[in-house]
Amino acid sequence: MSVHIGLMIWKEMKTKGISVAVLAEKMAISKNKAQEIINSSSLDVALLATVSEILGYNFFSYYEKGKLFSDHNQKEIKASAEEIKRLKSLLSEKNKTIELKDKMIQNLSQTVSILEKVQYR
Fold first, then answer.
1. Is the pTM of the predicted complex or chain greater than 0.70?
2. Which superfamily, per CATH, for 5-63?
3. Which of 41, 49, 73, 114 lies at a C-alpha separation of 20 to 30 Å from 12?
């Protein structure tokens, strides 16, 4: 897999209208160092994370098509789906409980109303 990450960063910068000077300023580095980042075909993970945060874009996504990331991502998706299913079930049970309590309150209110009518006769 060949990704020129600097090119991807440059494209995102152009999309967002961010100049090399602005990137350099936000990263607290020289304009030359920022240009080196854009010219680089690979970057240190920490540096890529910083650029991702500054530009508000997940540049790691270009690498997620690889086997390691793909397997990990699939496990996360499966775990998330199972958790969503569990939470939906829990929510459904809670909603049923609330409905039953509402019906009970309604029945008790009707009972109180009937008892009050009988008392005033």
1. no
2. lambda repressor-like DNA-binding domains (1.10.260.40)
3. 73
String of b and e for 33-52 (b: at least 16 CB within 10 Å)? ebbebbebeebeeeebebbb
- Residue-level pLDDT at 116: 87
- Nearest alpha carbon to residue 7 among 69, 49, 59: 59
Kindly state the tokens that stand for 43: 């970057």
Compute the half-sphere exposure of residue 91: CA atoms within 13 Å on the CB side of its CA.
6
- Cβ-contact 30, 16 below 8 angstroms: no
CB neighbours (10 Å) of residue 9?
25
Query: What pLDDT shows up at residue 117?
Result: 86
**What's the longest Cα–Cα distance across the chain?**
94
